[in-house]
Design goal:
homotetramer, 170 residues, alpha/beta, Rossmann fold, 7-stranded parallel beta sheet, 7 strands, 45% helix, globular
Amino acid sequence: MRKTIVGVMGAGNLATPTDLDNAYKLGQLIAQNGWILLTGGRKAGVMEATSKGAKIAGGLTVGILPGNNTDNLADDVDIAIVTDLGNARNNINVLSSDVVIACGMGTGTASEVALALKNQKKVILLTENQESKQFFSSLSPENILIANTPEQAIALVKQIILQHSLTTNQ
Amino acid sequence: MRKTIVGVMGAGNLATPTDLDNAYKLGQLIAQNGWILLTGGRKAGVMEATSKGAKIAGGLTVGILPGNNTDNLADDVDIAIVTDLGNARNNINVLSSDVVIACGMGTGTASEVALALKNQKKVILLTENQESKQFFSSLSPENILIANTPEQAIALVKQIILQHSLTTNQ
Amino acid sequence: MRKTIVGVMGAGNLATPTDLDNAYKLGQLIAQNGWILLTGGRKAGVMEATSKGAKIAGGLTVGILPGNNTDNLADDVDIAIVTDLGNARNNINVLSSDVVIACGMGTGTASEVALALKNQKKVILLTENQESKQFFSSLSPENILIANTPEQAIALVKQIILQHSLTTNQ
Amino acid sequence: MRKTIVGVMGAGNLATPTDLDNAYKLGQLIAQNGWILLTGGRKAGVMEATSKGAKIAGGLTVGILPGNNTDNLADDVDIAIVTDLGNARNNINVLSSDVVIACGMGTGTASEVALALKNQKKVILLTENQESKQFFSSLSPENILIANTPEQAIALVKQIILQHSLTTNQ
């Protein structure tokens, strides 16, 4: 039976120290809740940090790679999906996630938030970038949620999954 | 020899009357400058209006469709590219455009702006949405340009194409 | 209004001299019939030869590139569609073509023939590769047609387009 | 650390009874060897049968879906990757598999074999379709292997993985 997947999206080399701390913590909490972690798979920034956190906590990790091989895969990814789609793979990242968490902000992450909203997915923003919160909240108020800590983000994930489960089981 | 392509991105059914007027005018001006117009191809909103403007002015129009057939193609598209990629086709829209103009704003358009910036493309914003201007300008100040009218947008396109031509011919 | 597109698929560096001659001739004939030529866009083999033939005859050429820029674009392509999809762009090649001609045979071309058949497209095989004719004819007898010369291939394209036009206008 | 993935490709509704028996057995053997099973994910034919075999044997299953949701997911898929790419997702199926097994033959499966060969992947054919064996063996003799039973296919997978492991650890 299909397992619940939580996607953590975030920058590679441009991730801030706060983003990396949050990513690691998110990975741990996702694993502790028994969910699968999905990321963009690369050995850099948020993708690497959150996968590491999930593995330390005994979780299962999926990485959706943009290239055509696994050369740049983060060490802590269990299941590598090799897309060779470049940034078009960002749409797969969000479509495959039951809930999307944006950890930090950048051009790639912004594309993932926008694609998630386009696909009617709930997105949790965990970022110091104020302009992104104002923009995305105004764009799609019903699907954007704001968290200030990894713990708050995970509490929101739980609510969303519970709500979705109630809706689909009616 | 490859022709210059200008992409006009914008909403379908959620486009505002101002967006539609701007889109039509942009299409005319793009055609009058001898450039090819590229859009998301659907028979709706900005895609339809800007293709109509370009054809009235005798231009050539390309539409990059998300579906697997041409059923929803705008009447004024000459060349339909059928991708069957859903919203992942947004990355093709921006990669294939020498310059990207965002005409209006929505979740799909936001994804195209973000993907264009991720790919180091120049993007011209022509929209009443203030939050989007603040966000994208802060995200990528060197690649975001703001226009208040279609004419201003086209003047910026000319500058970008001239600059790019000077750079690559050095 | 949408123009008719004929796709010519074939190998890059592994194309045989016969394939290249056929590709050039196909390009000429496609242009002379007023159709748009669509190829994989690269500056190599069948893609390059058929685009050259079409331009010599005054046609319009589209190239669907696998990479994320136009560095390897064939000189005679007018409209470059930049996909960054690698070989996944092969599906776009066939979906965007009203009729597909396989000129020669190789692993990439075989994938395009198979994807075209999967999408219920008619495919004309113009190749010395006997095993491919036997296999694809057995796989999808109703959608595979065999040509021995470029002229025969073009005659088949005409029949298919006429038939399709009659069906959809009923 | 990345786990080994074996892809089993095959038809949906057009799968033969022999294909379904082979698919189920392949799934069991893949799970018993500790490998992850990857399929096209749909609730039909080979995809469904092989996922069921793997789960019965306690394995982990991944499904790469063509649509934009999980409505048609096979019951025995643990991890659903939602691509919304239509048949372009076939390229992801083969790129993500360390070894590809074609179980049966059809237009979709043929595209996967061809794409795998294009990407220099080893492909094991387990099919009653003689023309496909002749064609693909002639196209890429170094990367096509023929099996007559699921057990033979799995023995070939072991050889390929061992060989690859020796090569990359040198």
